[in-house]
Amino acid sequence: MSGSAAGLGLRSGSYGSLAAAVGGSGGGARKAGGRGWALRGEKERLQLLHRALRLVGRRRAGVLLLLAVASAAVFCSLFAVVKDDSSSISIVNNYEVPNAIQKSVYPSTTRPLKMSGDQYSSVVNKIELPNRLHLSYANFTHPCEGFSVPPPLVDKKRTGPRPCPVCYVSVDQAFALMPLQASPSPVLKNLNYISEDGIVANLSSQGSEFGGHPSLEQRNKSFDISESMTVHCGFVRGKKPGQGTGFDIKDDDLVEMEQCRELVVASAIFGNYDMIQHPRNISEFSKANACFYMFVDEETEAYVKNSSSLYNNNKVGLWRLVVVRNLPYEDPRRTGKIPKLLLHRLFPNVRFSVWIDAKLELVADPYLLLERFLWRKKATFAISRHYKRFDVFEEAEANKAAGKYDNASVDYQIEFYRNEGLSHYSPAKFPITSDVPEGCVIIREHIPITNLFTCLWFNEVDRFTSRDQISFSTVRDKIRARVGWMPEMFLDCERRNFVVQAYHRELLEQMIASGRRPPSTTDAPPSRKLRPGSRKAPPSKKPSVKRKKEKKSSSRRRVPKPPVAGGMGAM
């Protein structure tokens, strides 16, 4: 026992937490005895000093010296106490948060995909969580309570969309405010995905082989929401998403993706169309707990290897590059919709995701975005409104005017939706605030209803044009009519607060080749300390750079005449 006590005595010297537990041991007694001898020696030294001062006749100076020694001793003891106490907490925005929060890892509330025959299932599962500080919005005075977006600054020299201030909490507070359990999914509890290895293209159906060529009847049925559903959601061939399905990914990468549990921040570049934008202002906590994935094709990978000094073992800065092979579409824009809308299939164990288009630079911590746009609003899916257009019909005309898609395909899609009941946007649709999203950022929780929404949204992109702004409201309205759920739509100026838009690679290279220095972007994210609009706006005229239009292949869609509303089945 004496040996163990001695061992504990040594540990107490390092951690300062076990001295009381061994105070009655032999080691503790020796320590007390030694202190007695030290005090006795100190008293004798003070007496000798006092006697010497009396001998030289400087009694007043001796008193002052004694006071100085006593003050120094008291100061040293107080400093030791303050140092010991300050190591246990850190003050963030006048709110005490234990340092342990910064090292905690919050596990996923979604178990791995289970196989059910030839289908894959996504089921939310409740699990026990480790001990950690947790705050509830019900009993917590939020630091941003009462904050409102100020009116835009009047600046005749600067017109067009600009960022506006957004009130964020600290990263520690955001983590403490994370819900302990998954949000409830209205009606839908179990979502399965169709998988058919021997699929044959059906000329009477639209869509692609990757999407499974769902018939119009299957499309309509997918909006009849029930407790358990099986729907088309891409990846219809192969063993699992990324293995023989088209959009194929190496096994090592798939294993790593399955290990991502809590939050994934994702983006993609296909056709070498954009430059990699590196996230800024990311906390050490997020670097340790969130996954950052960039999906690229072989062409983009080759360019990154040759041009980026940061490339190292499939990583560029925070981004882990995943090379995708056997692309299912010839059009890079349509291929990019796979990771954008089907992240829940590529990351089956992730609880939350933030999608960022490759042209955007993330300049805020992703946990702050989750707290601000999901948890604070009690939302499960958040996307920004378009800065200018709110009506789908206007959006379609703008797409045609800009040459973003061939007019016949856009007209066919709009006429199809019109026959289904699509109407112009008006304030009468409130609480719906817009029919047109700015789809370059998606913040969402992975639960069955949000997974269904993005599956059906992807099916529309696969069936019609790849312009997801046109199909967004149709999918939203059909789901809302059945279960009362809809995405949260926030202001476009709030989106511009946490992302900065860059130029596409081809346009940037043209500017450099012509000797013109690329101007700084308009999206300078303001804070409560920085005034909005502090960066210089780009010139109003830009060189026109258009992508080549998508080539029609045997697996792509024909453009038949839109059916009349009566022939489309019950909605």
Automatic annotation (TrEMBL):
This protein's name: TOD1/MUCI70 glycosyltransferase-like domain-containing protein
Keywords from the named record: Membrane, Transmembrane, Transmembrane helix
Biased composition (Basic residues): 543-560
Keyword Flavoprotein: no
Domain TOD1/MUCI70 glycosyltransferase-like: start-end pairs: 191-504
Listed Pfam families: TOD1_MUCI70
Transmembrane spans: 61-82
Top-level taxon of the source organism: Eukaryota
